Amino acid sequence: MRLFLALALLVAAPAFAQAAAPATPRERLIAADANKDGKWSKEEWLAAGRREMGFAMIDADKDGFVTQPELMEGMKRMQAMGMSPPPQD
Prior knowledge:
Low-confidence stretches: 3-11
Number of helices: 5
Number of strands: 2
Oligomer: single chain
Shape: globular
Structural class: mainly alpha
Largest sheet: 2 strands, antiparallel
Distance between the termini: 43 Å
């Protein structure tokens, strides 16, 4: 019985490890959209592990929110400036 229990725990361990794997930057950003309005406030942006400076650069219209189009355009600008945006997956 003990052997069976030990084997069951060994088999289940990888499944638990996969569930605890860190999310990708994109997944963290999507999850940080707490109110699911499709845009990120500065608080949501910071909760996703993004930098405040990045928010200021990406929020093109300076309305206090980053939208998906602003994010995509900001990434293009960063690449054009020779900066590497964080990986998206």
